Amino acid sequence: MEDTYIIAGASVPGLSAPQDLKISGGFIEDFGPSLPREDGIRIIDASGLVLSYGFADLHVHFREPGNPEKESIRSGSLAAARGGYTTVCAMPNINPVPDSPGTLQAELDIIRRDAAIEVLPYCSITMGRKGLEVVDMGALKGSCAAFSDDGSGVQDGAVMLKAMRIAAREGCIIAAHCEDESLLGGGYIHDGRWCAAHGHRGICPESEWKQIERDISLCEESGCRYHVCHISTAKSVELIREAKARGLRISCETAPHYLLLCEDDMQEDGRFKMNPPLRTAQDRDALVEGLRDGTIDAVATDHAPHTAQQKSLGLKGSAMGVTGLETAFPVLYTGLVLTGLISLQRLLQALSEGPRRIFRLAGGLRAGERADLCLIDTGARHVIDSRDFMSKGHSTPFDGMQVQGKIRMTIFNGKTVYDSTKEKTGA
Predict the structure, then answer these.
(1) Is residue 178 classed as helix, strand or coil in its secondary structure?
(2) CA–CA separation, 21 vs 363, rounded Å?
């Protein structure tokens, strides 16, 4: 009975009594208060800890194949496990772009060989992510989570409408990086007062929400299931809220840095450079409200590692993107839950239940589900130190932040893949 054990006495938000969870053969066998103990069954004492189903991140960049020096499937999945994640969806801006069964297979082979948790690839919307020719979604849909050209928006509305119609017919999800490149003007941080005061070139908020506005119209015309990636503006929240009220099949995500930071937190440092950029305090507050009222379905990290050299060139010269898998829970718990802006239950929904629901991923704290879990110590205080990351990327705007909340254990398919007492994975 080595693969059978009980996690005992954990707290579960929304349930008053401590809960036990029995795992057998990689699946949840039973869940409830005070489960019977049997001789020979190992007990994991989880008293004082919070139990959650494993987090799911709809938006990560693992850089492999193509640039494993930035992040490999192995290093990225280990970082995810350390952050409490048991499922992540890997974006297609890799080399080769997964735009056909042949090019996708290169990524699938590495995932099968090296992943410590479940890694689900995206396929691109267009061939080579060039925005011109829509991929054969029917041939790819069985092997990917969704379709995205993330890293760039599909600029031609006719191409996007064609993609959405195909996606509607094939039962696929379009996950859009919304960015109108005609409005960028060479900008690289938010076009606001900090930008103007420090002599930088700005990215206007219209470059995001104008394309969301276009896509909502196309979604209405096509009937497609449409997911908006990493929203950063108040207008984006408003447009999506209105579209949902009209019954459109729309979902969206934002990232921890947009919920907790704004242009006022900027520093002349590459770790504050990401796309979309940090916006205004008003935008940040609108995103928090969108998370509170359910307009925002999920929090995704947009984990986007680069080499230290690529992030050392200041705001103008550094590559876009920051790491986030190992910091997401503690910074969100500290900045949103402990401050009373949202409940712990809502945060866990946004990290696990929400992403699983909108991408039709299995999972939950109930019998019969795969045993993908994390145990959280909400009282643990520590300081974010990027030098300790399992990720190859060490650039985060949260470096040095004093936080509360720490993942103590992550279990994938019934196996412990992260244990904070050992600071190593078991996969």
Answers:
(1) coil
(2) 14
- Write down the catalytic residue from 20, 150, 297, 302: 302
Considering only CA atoms, which of 145, 115, 121, 122 is closest in space to residue 362?
145
CA distance 4 to 17: 23
DSSP bridge pairs for 322: 303
Residue 141's contacts (CB-CB under 8 Å, 6 or more residues apart) are 170, 171, 172
**What's 349's DSSP letter?**
I
Q: Is the pTM of this model over 0.90?
A: yes
Find the helix or strand (DSSP H, E) in which 411 lies. strand 402-412
Strands 55-60 and 85-90: parallel
- Is residue 10 classed as helix, strand or coil in its secondary structure? strand
Report which DSSP code applies to 134: B
- Torsion angle of alpha carbons 290, 295, 299, 300, nearest 10°? -120
Residues 55/352, Cβ–Cβ less than 8 Å: yes
**Choice between 96 and 426, residue whose per-residue pLDDT is larger:** 96
Q: What is the pLDDT of residues 298-355, one digit of tens each?
A: 999 999 999 999 999 999 999 999 999 999 999 999 999 999 999 999 999 999 999 9
Q: How is residue 299 written in tokens?
A: 């929090």
Write out pLDDT tens, residues 384-410.
999 999 999 999 999 999 999 999 999
Q: Describe the crossing of helices 234-245 and 281-293 by its angle, rounded to 10 degrees.
A: 30
The 3-state DSSP class for residue 129 equals helix
Contact indicator for 300, 356 with CB cutoff of 8 Å: no
376 torsion bin: left (phi>0), alpha (psi -120 to 50), beta (else) = beta
302 is known as an active-site residue: yes
195 SS3 class: helix
Q: What is the DSSP letter of 249?
A: -
Asked whether the beta carbons of 65 and 96 are under 8 A apart, the reply is yes
CA distance 160 to 167: 10
List, as one string, the DSSP characters of 58-110.
EEE---TTT-TTT--HHHHHHHHHHTTEEEEEE-S-SSS---SHHHHHHHHHH
- SS3 state of residue 53: strand
Inter-residue contact 54 to 352 (CB < 8 Å): yes
Tell me the CA distances in angstroms from 20 to 12, 26, 36, 131, one per residue in order. Answer: 10, 16, 9, 50
